[in-house]
Write a structure and sequence with these properties.
Elements: H1 4-12, H2 17-39, H3 49-68, H4 79-103
Helix pairs in contact: 2-3, 3-4
Length: about 110
């Protein structure tokens, strides 16, 4: 649905590139999760919390909205990829936005 034929082909050939790319994505999402947990008060406050959470929220919202424009011209991806990934990003962005609004005064 989303990895693309090129990534699948590289993985079949035993290339390490898909592993490196996926590991980087996992690292980014892990850092974003840590900041979300910090903003929610579950873990101690991380540096630049309000700025980082605002940036993460903006990225999710922009990606969520922008992806819908690629549905009719999918740029090598399946239209269903753009639909689902955009819906997920938009949902996460809205959750972050409402959560950030609730805790803004404390962070």
């Amino acid at each position: 649905m989303g990895a693309g034929e090129e990534m699948a082909t590289l993985a079949k050939r035993g290339s390490i590139q898909p592993t490196i790319i996926t590991s980087f994505i996992v690292l980014v999402f892990s850092i974003w999760t840590a900041y979300a947990l910090s903003g929610a008060g579950v873990i101690s406050q991380l540096p630049l919390l309000s700025w980082v959470l605002s940036t993460i929220t903006a990225i999710y919202l922009l990606r969520g909205v922008a992806g819908f424009f690629f549905y009719s011209n999918p740029l090598g991806r399946a239209p269903v990829f753009w639909l689902w990934s955009s819906a997920i990003c938009l949902t996460l962005g809205l959750v972050h936005m409402f959560g950030l609004k609730q805790v803004w005064a404390q962070i």
